[in-house]
Amino acid sequence: DTAVSQTPKYLVTQMGNDKSIKCEQNLGHDTMYWYKQDSKKFLKIMFSYNNKELIINETVPNRFSPKSPDKAHLNLHINSLELGDSAVYFCASTAGRPGGELFFGEGSRLTVL
Amino acid sequence: GQNIDQPTEMTATEGAIVQINCTYQTSGFNGLFWYQQHAGEAPTFLSYNVLDGLEEKGRFSSFLSRSKGYSYLLLKELQMKDSASYLCAVRRFAGNNRKLIWGLGTSLAVNP
Hints:
Helix content of chain A: under 10%
Low-confidence stretches of chain A: none
Oligomer: heterodimer
Largest interface: A-B, 19 and 23 residues
């Protein structure tokens, strides 16, 4: 059983298109995240949801819109894709307790041509 | 502001010991994590320190000094499979939330 699963794993698309990445966790965690990891391997937080409520919204273009239908799911929709959006997008979840570690999904590698 | 520094690359030999350092500057410190990330894979949790001292977990240990803003990850009896990137992350209080600030990672190459 995969704890945090995200789809698709690979996505190749043209500039200007709209795409979505889905994430689901079966750990019963309250808090979920979207991270972007670029070619320099820097992990940058994008969004965080706690019990379906947006709690962290970093400086991210409004072309990126997260949606959490329930606390086990957090999806990411990207409009008007740009070359600079090419990266690996990781979904993660945590129980939220002080020492609670993040559990990451396998990542979704987005390539914008 | 927030800043996390760790060496970009390190090389070590199979069977040896290696220490990866991490220094940080942040307000509202609420714990420090170490994660391991193999190429093409997701980060996985290694250790968590919130109090000063050493936490040992098998071949891996992590140390924290809050007054110095310093942590290290110690890897003993290195194996080839330990070749990976090691990420230091500091959790801090930000308003009502806790946020993780990530270092750029240390890429460790273990040679035979």
